[in-house]
Amino acid sequence: xxxxxxxxxxxxxxxxxxxxxxxxxxxxxxxxxxxxxxxxxxxxxxxxxxxxxxxxxxxxxxxxxxxxxxxxxxxxxxxxxxxxxxxxxxxxxxxxxxxxxxxxxxxxxxxxxxxxxxxxxxxxxxxxxxxxxxxxxxxxxxxxxxxxxxxxxxxxxxxxxxxxxxxxxxxxxxxxxxxxxxxxxxxxxxxxxxxxxxxxxxxxxxxxxxxxxxxxxxxxxxxxxxxxxxxxxxxxxxxxxxxxxxxxxxxxxxxxxxxxxxxxxxxxxxxxxxxxxxxxxxxxxxxxxxxxxxxxxxxxxxxxxxxxxxxxxxxxxxxxxxxxxxxxxxxxxxxxxxxxxxxxxxxxxxxxxxxxxxxxxxxxxxxxxxxxxxxxxxxxxxxxxxxxxxxxxxxxxxxxxxxxxxxxxxxxxxxxxxxxxxxxxxxxxxxxxxxxxxxxxxxxxxxxxxxxxxxxxxxxxxxxxxxxxxxxxxxxxxxxxxxxxxxxxxxxxxxxxxxxxxxxxxxxxxxxxxxxxxxxxxxxxxxxxxxxxxxxxx
Length: 538
Known about the structure:
Layout: H1 3-15, H2 20-34, H3 40-46, H4 54-62, H5 69-80, H6 87-95, H7 101-113, H8 118-135, H9 137-140, H10 147-157, E1 163-167, H11 174-182, E2 188-192, H12 197-208, E3 234-239, H13 271-280, E4 282-293, H14 295-298, H15 302-313, E5 317-322, E6 335-340, E7 348-353, H16 367-376, E8 387-391, H17 392-397, H18 418-433, H19 439-450, H20 462-465, H21 488-492, H22 529-537
Parallel strand pairs: 1-2, 1-3, 3-4, 5-7
Antiparallel strand pairs: 4-6, 5-6, 7-8
């Protein structure tokens, strides 16, 4: 590792036992005092007492036997209050902070040694924020998107000219930072909005440590209910809004709003409110990359279906990309990227199924962005196992469902031959017979092993061997008294089946629909593999 990496590693190791909010304050104070000669407003404000800066005050506390570093940090932040719109929130967090003074002193010494390396300060801030999310995902996970995912989204956005970049729920400002860092040769103006005071402070602090500025409006607010950038149009939009945000407005009809051009979003889910909000803020040649849950692609809610249909047929959707699980802290909800680009409106959509790890590599992924670049430039793309270009007419036949796996080529399944299966079975039989088993059982196993495969065995469809029907969907007259199903919770919460079930059906031998030996039960469910196996076994 080089010196910069060593400095970051040392500070992160030391930081593990120190309050993240205190560390962020130290980084901010160090940055302001380091760059005061370059920023006139800082230079004027900091010279309040000879050459002593707020950072000097903190360092001085190290040499005192009764020094109080926490008080020095609070005093330093108070000195910066006139120039920091978010300093009050920072001070509030400091009031609840605590910890080991000796560890904090060591950290101050490390920060003093890195001199004016602003890149180290910003890198440490980012690492420190991710650590904070891991320790408390419910508190911080809603405003932090991993930088490798951000870089991938910026690559998809394809910023080509100077312009404005907007994130309607910018949280820590990761999206905005990613855009301007990837395009330092462009003049980009940053805009955003945050929901709460903490993210309002963190976002500004994050961008300040990278020498950028952002317009977040005058205060934090719910973007969907109080649009602080109303009537503004943006050239580029990046966003990772809260997934499946429910009860996002009060009871009663939603106020008339020009943003709901394609339909009033349902109160129980704000996904299509975010999509319409973003569309309403795009300039005539604007582009947007938005992360949303996969449910937006397949929802059967009537209102959401109608909104999705109207957005599609108005030419906004350039591409849909489904992604693997586990990309974000605190949730494994599978998600997708909507690429919105009316400037390239056509009668077709690029679908990419990138759920498999061998396709999507957020740390270094150029394959998908190159594919999108080729599509934007009019190159004809063939349908493969992981991408397809699909006309609206075909999408309409699928009820405007936008799940890529409906349109890509099905993967070829490698089915072993009957001879291979027989050899595997014989090997398993030998293994069983080598165990300590009753002799009668070993004889039976040997009989199975020596059975000759009938020459007339052929491949057939399941429907030729089984009578297939949907048990739960059968008509009422097919059942006796009670409910025609045993619910999943009844099964997985009991080691053995109980004497009574919360839902059951009483059947006589004469009735048609009941489970017999040899029946095959198929189920598609959201339960885990273990839970599903448990239910199937019972």
